[in-house]
Hints:
Blueprint: H1 21-27, E1 33-45, E2 50-51, E3 66-72, E4 85-93, E5 99-105, E6 112-118, E7 120-129, E8 139-142, E9 149-153, E10 164-166, E11 171-182, E12 187-195, E13 201-210, E14 213-224, E15 229-236, E16 241-253
Amino acid sequence: MGNGIRNRILKGFPGIALPRYEIDIAKGIVEGRVAVDGHGHNLTAAATEETIWTMSSLYTYLTSAEQLKVSSSVPATDIPASTGAWTVLVHGLNANYRPIIETVTLLNPGPVTTTLSFLRVFHAHVMTAGTGGKNAGIISVKNNANAVTLSAIAVGENESHMAIYTVPVGLRFIMLEWHGGELAAKESHILLYIREYEALWQLKKEVILKDTSFIFPMTIPLIVPERSDIELRCTANAGAGIIFGEFSGYTEENKY
């Protein structure tokens, strides 16, 4: 059965359908499987390929693990005891492609250097904040030289929006769906790229659209092996496109 209509049937009671398998994964009650969602937006998409993420540029990947720099564009407000963001949680992978997370307490002046070394960063979000309840400035997670942005939280959004993911070692990613849209009446191109470990980027799926959106469930899921990078990119005819995109599914251990 297709992933969009698959139901588990209670043994001995074939007429009773339980909630979909994917819902159980999202609830965290299926052993060995974890829901994954990569979503982002590009509010000023260019005529040349850019990643679907906050920064409106083509994403740059680290080639070796390093400590990162975390800072705010409004450091006087995004610090403990003030009204903005206080702490930020950074999600990624270490040099061995194993998941790591680190909580960073913002400082004025920044940036703050992480204790852990990251090879990949695919999400960051504000953990605690003052009375404003959100980040006052742009929160940036950059490489150790503080020159290359690896994740960014736009003003007031409290989490990064980047349609990027790297599959941890020992796991594979089962992609069940991808979707996106374009809101500026530009003829736009949304592209799903995958780069397997030590290989080249390959274009797996693409959509051309104008002032509309799409959602494509994968009747036959796309299986992405460990240590692969996944990225949604876009172009907008004549530039200035407003584009969003997302892919979703779950990881499972390679033993299954």
